[in-house]
Amino acid sequence: MKVNIDKDLVPMKAHYFLFNAGTAPVVPFMPQLATQLGYSSVVVGTMYMILPIIGLIAKPLFGYIADRYHQHRLLFLGGQALTAVAFFQIMFVPAVDQETQFHCHAGVSSIRYCSNYAADTEQQLETHFANRTLSCQMRCQMVPPMWDIVCNNWLQNKTQSCQTNSSKSWIDFDTYISMNDVIDEPMLNGKGRCLNFLIPHDRGVVDAQNVTLYCPKENDIFRPKCQMNCNDSYLEKMLPASRELNMSSAMAKPEFWFFFGMLIISWAGMAVVVSIGDAICFGLLGERHHLYGKQRLCGSLGWGVFAVIAGLLVDAMSKDGSDVKNYTIVFWMTLVILGFDMLASTKLKHTQTHMSSNIWKDVGQMFLSLRCVVFFLWCVAIGLGTALIWNFLFIYLEELAKPFDEGNYIKTLEGLVMGIQCFGGELPLFFLSGWILKRIGHVNAMSLVLFGFGVRFILYSMLQNPWYILPIELLNGVTFGLFYATMASYASIVAPPGTEATMQSLVGAIFEGVGVSIGSQIAGQLFDAVSARTTFEIFGIAAFIIFIIHVCVQMYLQRNVPYENGKGRSSTASAPASASASASPPTTVTNTANEMHTDSPTSPKNLDDFRDVDLS
């Protein structure tokens, strides 16, 4: 049997695959990277509240520009380039200054920890540990003069690798701290206190060699900033490994604004690419709206494959037992893959067949339809739940993973989670979305998505072992795959002629700019105020409540509100293609809510057999 391939759709499939493959290595890891850089969950939640608002502004704005000036392709390629460059720049963002320092001078070595810790911390540590000595792994920032001390005095030039390693910006070594020799003293600026842990006999291990951590008094004080891991849960509880900045402290740091600025640019670029890309896709499909899911599943395939690869590579390139992960490889992956995406996108053949003389007026008519307003509110509700998964699920997983494997394989687990989300969830649901929407309709699909969120969040709240999350991720097919196909299909069908990109941008902006934005802020505050587990439980209960409300509202609309929306209200001053569509014979609506018949044989609804889309 000969397989028919629509060559015009091949570049579209390639774009979905490559764009999702290019963003999969970075987007899911950005919240964890932010916490690793030293920002608190409230700061992360605030950033991810603002980022969707950027999408809320960018999507309708650039969608309007694309429709008004017919520059879909130019804006599409520009958004891809902007996304790739902005994400790549994040690789150079430095971490927040650590409060742990290694002090070495005149034959005395110690580890200095400065922070606003509790007043009785010294007493609690000495009571708990008594005369114990702890072994600690250190990773300290280095500059060339410091390497001279290490090579000449610690290693005494006995290793050939010393001069080779001197180009590194950090050094790893092991040492010991005596818990009965803890000195508490105020900081020089008076804004906190410092604990000094003395190192017995200046003992240390560098490159598997026992050394004396000796620093001559004629040299400047050797005091690099360090990360310390003593593999003791009580010490980690009393002295957190890194300082988490609150919002006011973060805003005072230029590196935060650089990080946040690059996120804003990348989010704006992705907003433009996603919304205009979907409009181009529906333009290529014409009246075959039900085939959208089969194009979009290529994106799930790309996301799933490269998310798993990225997780494996991050774990492989990070040091075992360290909480600090090395994300360098994922930024290079994004830059290269999005470059190939731009190349594939130049092959797209897209022309706008309809024009609207007053785009904002035509789109604004959608808000006069009660059913469309309910649809927009549904997008907001889904955005609230999606925010919790996108921005906080992996932070929750990392909390659960610490008691099991100290987080050594957490990025591998996160990669597998994204792989199952795509291959086990999104991909089959995108493939079947056209059939599902024909069988149960858009309205029932919307209710099913809400119910899926409730089940998913309640199961998250019951997790004890993080690896048990893998089967739960099959529900991502309902909560994202079916949702996204329903949202994009509904928006495309009801969009007045000539406003397709604007309409896709509008619903995307409502979903992300309103729903995801508010959800991120709520989730961040709940994470900080209660706990991750309780947050998921609260969101699960809320999802079930919204599900019940949505079902009741839709039953009321079917019984009491006639079918109407903005599709039939497009501007009478539209371009000829739009005008001819408006001049078609009038639609006759039966008294039965589930049955609609049009006199026009070319009605899009008749072609697609969608029974519950609100066409006049």
TrEMBL record:
Alphabetized InterPro entries for the sequence: MFS_assoc_dom, MFS_dom, MFS_MFSD6, MFS_trans_sf
Compositional bias (Polar residues): 589-605
Subcellular location: Membrane
GO cellular component: membrane
Domain of life: Eukaryota
Keywords: Membrane, Transmembrane, Transmembrane helix
Membrane topology annotation: Multi-pass membrane protein
Residue numbers spanned by region Disordered: 567-616
Primary location class: membrane
Stretches assigned to the Major facilitator superfamily (MFS) profile domain: 371-616
TM segment ranges: 37-62, 74-96, 256-285, 297-317, 329-348, 368-396, 416-436, 443-462, 474-494, 506-526, 538-557
Family, similarity comment: Belongs to the major facilitator superfamily. MFSD6 family.
Protein name: Major facilitator superfamily domain-containing protein 6-A isoform X1
Species this protein is from: Drosophila albomicans (Fruit fly)
